[in-house]
Structures are given as structure tokens and as C-alpha cells.
Design goal:
Keywords: Cell outer membrane, Membrane, Signal, Transmembrane. It is found in: Membrane. Its main location: membrane. A hairpin with a 2-residue loop joins strand 8 and strand 9. Helices cover 17% and strands 37% of the residues. The chain is an alpha+beta fold. The strands form 5 sheets. A 16-stranded antiparallel sheet has the order 12-13-14-15-16-17-18-19-20-23-24-25-26-27-28-29.
């Protein structure tokens, strides 16, 4: 609010005195307002000239004073503080030296230098005959620079030749030519030439040429062949050192798992006490680590050809063990050998064996519940000397509401969870490993939760899971849990809740005994972690199966009133699938268009009429349909008659479809804005007479809820505080022909605002 208030004040100052930008300028000076690029050439279309303009318009210097919503707010602040102020203290000191920005003067603009910069850039892009002329225009103490660009004809590639012979180096280069970035017919581009040198160097590093680098490659360009074309000749420089032409193999591999930074103890790097294990020398005087762990993590083997990819991935794998704070290595030439070889040394600085972390989080929901949770996690690294990680977490939290329909219906929960993680696949009979940059993990998890909803019920929940987590790359991750067990037991259900539950199936489902015995698998693909392009993709797909094996031994069918039980609780039988697909498109430097499609469906069968409550889908709230209360939408066109009880239950379903789109843009400083539209709903797989209109049918589009809204995000790096104000546009429970409610918007009516405006306060982006 500090920045918002400041902006309002400065905007008022601007209205009162629009000339304040130039009022305090030195005598004879003008305020620089920016540059304009004019591309003049009859050869090119408007689209091509626009592309040329976009290439160069950001290259001119200096940059003018920043604008916020069209106003030079930072310059206003600087002027308000006064030109004679030297102290950084107080409001005016902060305005001038922290928030403010001094004027950018026309005297600092050098058209000649900018002409040269623009011309050089165009020449590097193949416009060898480009001409640039700069000029300045000053009016009413404000000035701008105008640059007229005549690009002329862009040269293209006629032919690319690689200088090859029978040497190992040039043979290796020859194998890379089919993937060359230099293609006949493409425009000449110096950046592409540089990228081609980097590509060749990278391929050679993966073929054992340890001492080679891109500076040993030269690309000669002949632009005299005519027809605005060039021939290119890729060759190795004549002065390339002999070592750069040799293929190196790995000799001995030494691993120091107890290395200390700023080491002064020579014993830490001595090979005297090394223990040899399957080609690796492990220097571990205290025997804190089993050598098998390093064998699984290492991708280099004795006598293997040096490979830069294996080099980097080995460092990644050692880091991903989670045992070492710092990981580094070095290579050393082996003297007096018949062929070039390298000794390899890995220095690993361990984390403390045991540690305790505490996290405190605040939560708020669009149903007016607020709360907090504290989590204390104890870690024991290298538990059994094989890189195992034992984590025990305890947590406790609450959600409360002061006033409103949930007053007194507070929620309290606590729990404990233990996870033992092994840095390998533990699979009976088979021995598996991955070859990428990440060590696979086998996880065993045990957990217990206690949940108390005052005036309603208390639940005990027990869970056990055994599974695997592994990454193909940074962008691709798999999680497979062949054993996943969850047992939920209700206790202390109040008479008030039982009475309400007898009239509402949703309330009844929340207190049912649940026994889930099955398997889960999920796959995540996320280019946001690796992509340097404007666009990013995120996909997560999951499969959740329960009761399939147990169901082979039973013939029960819940539809016939015949339910099988385990430990006096009906076990669930279902197949659940979900997919979350997101696309991010960068429109400008600080503007992103984000889109999400979520689809999920559960197929209950035999021993289950619907998905268990903890596996069902919900719609509405901070990260869903933001124009509706949390978990209040659906199923289908059903609406809960809230006059029956003093509280509003969460609505759940077996099927969910949701679409979200959001335009995000930076406003100023740490403040970002967004406008959004959300649409979706949940449905039941089987008909339920207690929830008419809730079943999924071919007319499901009639049940779609729609909302719009806008929001602010305060991005302070370590977290993003998000405020979203949502407004419903379509209410699926309204009669046919009246579902769209845009014509009912009445911002001046306090009752309408109370019933329809939903303020969401959350941490992080919704997707």
C-alpha cells in the first residue's frame, strides 16, 4: 500500500503541475524522452521493416527516464525531493535516492556512437551495406533522437564447406556436419556463426577432445561471389595446440567425500589411504560412506573416453544425493603414457549429518477462513552409510473465522510423517539405475494425521507408501508408488453434524471410513526449468488405482448393497486419471499470457459408488475459479440449500474440468497486475438423488461456471503475495436462460457486493 499511496500522491502532483518534469533542468538543457527508429528501404515489405526496427530499437543509449502507466513517476519523486537535498534520511531522502531517478539529459545523447552501434548490429545480421543517420529534435525543453536506417540487401549463405582430412579431430568434426546451424539460403548472421562454433566444440568435448575449445575454430566468409551471397569455410586454426587434437581417456578416479573448503590439511587430498572399489579410489579414512554409493552415482569409468556430458551429469548426480554442500572436480594429465589420459579427482564437502528446519506458513481462503501451520523437520543424512536420508516431520495448524457463517467452526490438525529415502532403485531381483544427471530415489513413507473440526467431527488418518522418484532430465520427472495405503477413521462425530449429514450426502462422505489400497504414477514435464525461449510448457499427468488386486478375491458390488470390508472399513475400488497442462507465452519483456487446462476423471466400480472423499475433485477458490467461494462449485448444476444448516459444506465430485487464462504484466517496482477468466465445474460419475443435476452428461457444457477478475501480485523474490478480486459471470445452478449474470452486476449495491465479490489472498501464483 505504501507504493500505491505514493503513486496517488505523485499523480496528483502531475495533474497540478504538468511541467514539473522540466522545471528543475539546468539552464540550456532538455529532457531526453527516448529514440525513434525509421526504417527506409523500398526493397522490403512493412512486416520485414518492422522486424528490422525491432532488432535495433533497444540498442540506443542512454535509456530515458522510466514510465509507470505513462507517467515518469520516479522523475517526479526526484524533483519533489529538491535538487539541493543530500541526505538519504526521511521521506524526501528516500524519494530522491531510493525511489527517485535523476533526469536523463539530451546532452548525454551521442547520435554518432548510436549510429555506429546500429550499423554494426545490422552488418552482423547480413546487412553489409547498411547506413544509419542520427538526428535530434528538441521542443519545449524535451528532446528525442531519431535514427533513419537504410538496411539495403541482406546477404544469404550460398555454400558451407568444412575443411576436412584424415586426422582424428577433423573426422570428429565431419561427424557433426549434418547438424550444422549454417544452412544454404539462410541469412548471414554472426550470432549463428558463434553458435555453430559452440555446437562443434560441445560435440568434440563429448568425443574426448578435452583440451579443445571453440576459439580453435574459424569461419572464413567470402562475400565477393556476387548476388548478395556468401560462401563459408569452416576450419581448424593452424596454430591449434597438439593437445587439443588428442582424444583423452579416463585413467584413475579419486573421490574425497570428506573434503573441507579452504583446506589446509594435506591429508584431505592425499591418495595414500584410498580404498579401491570397482575402479574407484575412495579416500574415506573414517569409513563414513559405503563405496557402492559412489559407484552408482559416477558415470565415468576407468579407460572410458572423456565426455563433457558425463562430466557435468556426474557432478549433478553427486549433488542430487543431498549429502554434499559443495561438489567440485579437476582433471590432471597422466605423464609418460602411450596415449593421452586424465586422472580425475572429486572433492565433496558434506552437509552436517543432522539438521532441524522449521517452517511457518500462513493461509487464507476465499470462504473467509484464515490460519497458520508450523512444520518442524529433522533430517539424518547418510543414515546407514549408503546415502540414505531419514526425514521426520511434525506439524500442527489451524483455520479459524471471526464472525460469518463459519464462526466457531474452527479446524485444528497435527501430524507426523517419516520418510526414508535410498539413492537407488530397490527392486526385488532386478538391478536398475539411470544414466542421466539425477540419482533415482526409493522412498518409504509412514504418516499419521489428526484432524478436528470443532462442532463437527474428528478424523484419524494413517498412510503408508513405497515407491520411486527419478528424473530423465531437469524437465522430466517420474514418480511411481506401487504400494500406497491410506486408512481414514472418523471419531467423535457430533450429533449436529450427524443430523445434517443424514440430509446431505457430501457431509456424509466426509465422515465415512476409507481404506485405499492401490498404486499411483505421475509424470511431470516442465520446460520452465530449462527453456530460454519466450514460451514455456508445463504438463503433469497422473494415474491412481485402488482395490484392483484385492478386488480379484471379492465378488461384492456396492450397487447391490453388498460391500466388502478390510479392518472393518470398506475398501475403495476406482481408477483415477488427471492431467494439468499449462502454456506460458511471453508477449513483452514483462508481460506473460498464462493458460491452464485441468481435466480429471475417476471411475468408481464394484466396491465403490464414488471416489473416496480424499481423492475427489473440488472447484472454486484461490487456485481454481476465483469468482466463487472455496470448494463451493457443483457438482454440475446442483446448489447446496444452505438454509438447512449453519455451515456450508465443501462440494466434491468424481470428474473435474477447468480452464484458466490470465494476462500478467509488471506495473512498477515489485508490483505486478493481472486480469483473468476462469471456467469449469465438477461432476459425479454416478447419479445421486440427493444431488440432482450433479451427474456428468453429454450436456456438461451447460454446467460450466465462469468468472472474471483482476489482481495484484507483490513479488519480493522469496515469495509472491497475491490479491485477486473475482466476479462471477455464469452461475450453473440458475435456471436455463438465466445462467449468465453479467446483467445483474450492481457495484453500488452492498448486498450484491457481499454475495458476489470474492477477494482471494494467497501466496504464489495460481498456476
Amino acid at each position: 500500500m505504501k507504493f500505491f499511496s505514493l503513486y496517488i500522491i505523485l499523480f496528483g502532483v502531475f495533474i497540478i503541475s504538468s511541467c514539473s518534469n522540466t522545471k528543475y533542468l539546468p539552464e540550456g538543457e532538455a529532457l531526453y524522452t527516448g529514440s525513434k527508429i525509421k526504417v527506409v528501404d523500398s526493397v522490403y515489405s512493412k512486416k520485414k521493416k518492422k522486424a528490422i526496427k525491432e532488432q535495433v530499437e533497444d540498442l540506443t543509449r542512454p535509456k530515458p527516464n522510466k514510465k509507470i502507466l505513462g507517467l515518469r513517476v520516479k522523475l517526479y519523486a526526484y524533483n519533489i525531493a529538491g535538487k539541493n537535498r543530500t541526505s538519504t534520511k526521511g521521506l524526501f531522502g528516500w524519494l530522491k535516492f531510493k525511489f527517485g531517478e535523476p533526469p536523463v539529459l539530451m546532452s548525454s545523447v551521442n547520435p554518432g556512437i548510436n549510429e555506429q552501434i546500429l550499423a554494426n548490429h545490422l552488418q552482423n545480421k547480413g546487412f553489409f551495406q547498411a547506413a544509419v543517420k542520427g538526428d535530434t529534435v528538441i521542443k519545449r525543453k524535451k528532446g528525442e533522437a531519431i535514427y533513419t536506417v537504410v538496411p539495403s540487401v541482406q546477404y544469404t549463405i550460398n555454400e558451407v564447406k568444412f575443411d576436412l582430412d584424415s586426422s582424428d579431430l577433423k573426422k570428429a568434426i565431419a561427424r557433426t556436419t549434418r547438424r550444422t546451424l549454417l544452412q544454404k539460403g539462410d541469412p548471414y548472421d554472426l550470432d549463428i556463426i558463434k553458435a555453430e562454433r559452440e555446437r562443434i566444440d560441445s560435440r568434440l568435448k563429448n568425443r574426448g577432445f578435452y583440451y579443445f575449445n571453440q576459439d580453435f575454430i574459424i569461419v572464413d566468409v567470402d562475400s565477393t561471389i556476387g548476388k548478395n551471397q556468401v560462401n563459408m569455410y569452416v576450419r581448424v586454426k593452424s596454430g591449434t595446440p597438439p593437445a587439443a587434437k588428442d582424444i583423452y581417456r579416463i585413467n584413475d578416479i579419486f573421490i574425497y567425500p570428506g573434503y573441507r573448503l579452504n583446506n589446509v590439511n594435506a591429508a584431505d587430498t592425499s591418495t595414500k589411504n584410498a580404498f579401491y572399489y570397482k575402479g574407484y579410489y575412495v579416500v574415506d579414512r573414517k569409513h563414513l560412506y559405503k563405496p557402492q554409493m559412489f559407484e552408482r552415482a559416477m558415470l565415468f569409468k576407468t579407460d572410458s573416453v572423456y565426455n563433457r556430458r558425463a562430466h557435468n551429469q556426474t557432478l549433478q548426480r553427486l549433488t542430487s544425493l543431498g549429502l554434499f554442500k559443495f561438489v567440485k572436480n579437476r582433471f590432471e594429465d597422466v605423464p609418460n603414457v602411450d596415449s593421452p589420459k586424465l586422472n580425475t579427482y572429486y572433492y565433496l564437502t558434506p552437509y552436517p549429518k543432522k539438521s532441524v528446519n522449521t517452517e511457518i506458513a500462513g493461509t487464507t481462503k476465499s470462504n473467509d477462513l484464515t490460519g497458520s501451520q508450523i512444520t518442524i523437520a529433522w533430517k539424518n543424512r547418510n543414515t546407514f552409510k549408503g546415502g540414505e536420508l531419514l526425514t521426520i516431520k511434525t506439524y500442527g495448524g489451524f483455520e479459524i473465522q471471526y464472525g460469518g457463517q463459519f464462526n466457531g467452526y474452527n479446524t485444528f490438525r497435527y501430524g507426523i510423517e517419516g520418510t526414508l529415502s535410498f539413492p537407488q532403485f530397490i527392486v526385488p531381483v532386478f538391478k536398475l539405475n539411470t544414466s542421466g544427471g539425477y540419482v533415482p530415489k526409493t522412498n518409504i513413507t509412514l504418516g499419521y494425521d489428526w484432524l478436528n473440526k470443532q462442532k463437527q467431527y474428528t478424523l484419524n488418518s494413517f498412510r503408508v507408501a513405497y515407491g520411486y522418484v527419478w528424473k530423465e532430465t531437469l524437465a522430466k520427472e517420474h514418480q511411481l508408488y506401487p504400494i500406497s495405503v491410506n486408512y481414514v477413521q472418523p471419531i467423535n462425530v457430533t450429533d449436529q453434524y450427524r443430523d445434517s449429514a443424514s440430509r446431505n450426502v457430501t457431509l456424509q462422505k466426509a465422515i465415512e471410513k476409507q481404506f485405499i489400497l492401490g498404486s499411483t504414477y505421475s509424470y511431470t514435464y516442465n520446460t520452465l526449468l530449462t527453456s530460454r525461449r519466450k514460451d514455456g510448457l508445463y504438463f503433469r499427468g497422473g494415474v491412481d488405482l485402488s482395490g484392483n488386486i484385492v478386488g480379484l478375491f471379492t465378488k461384492n458390488d456396492v450397487k447391490n448393497g453388498d460391500t466388502a470390508k478390510i479392518f472393518n472399513a470398506p475398501f475403495s475400488q476406482y481408477a483415477r486419471f488427471d492431467a494439468d497442462f499449462r502454456v506460458y507465452h511471453k508477449i513483452g519483456k514483462t508481460t506473460i499470457w498464462a493458460n491452464r487446462i485441468f481435466a480429471g476423471v475417476g471411475f468408481p466400480y464394484k466396491n465403490s459408488y464414488s471416489l473416496p472423499y480424499v481423492k475427489q475433485f473440488f472447484a472454486g477458490g484461490n487456485n481454481s475459479l476465483r469468482g466463487f467461494r472455496s470448494r463451493s462449485i457443483g457438482p454440475g448444476s446442483y446448489i447446496y440449500p444452505d438454509t438447512l444448516t449453519g455451515f456450508y459444506p465443501d462440494q466434491s465430485g468424481d470428474i473435474r474440468l477447468e480452464l484458466n487464462t490470465e494476462l500478467r504484466a509488471k506495473l512498477f517496482s515489485i508490483v505486478y497486475g493481472a486480469v483473468f477468466v476462469d471456467a469449469g465445474n465438477i461432476w459425479l460419475y454416478n447419479e445421486n438423488p440427493a444431488q440432482p443435476g450433479g451427474k456428468f452428461t453429454k450436456h456438461f457444457l451447460d454446467d460450466i461456471a465462469v468468472n472474471t477478475g483482476f489482481g495484484l501480485r507483490f513479488d519480493v523474490s522469496i515469495l509472491v503475495l497475491r490479491l485477486d478480486l473475482g466476479i462471477p459471470l455464469r452461475k450453473p445452478w440458475y435456471p436455463e436462460g438465466h445462467k449468465w449474470v453479467l446483467d445483474q452486476v450492481d457495484l453500488g449495491n452492498s448486498q450484491w457486493r457481499k454475495d458476489n465479490l470474492v477477494l482471494n489472498i494467497a501466496i504464489g501464483y495460481p498456476f
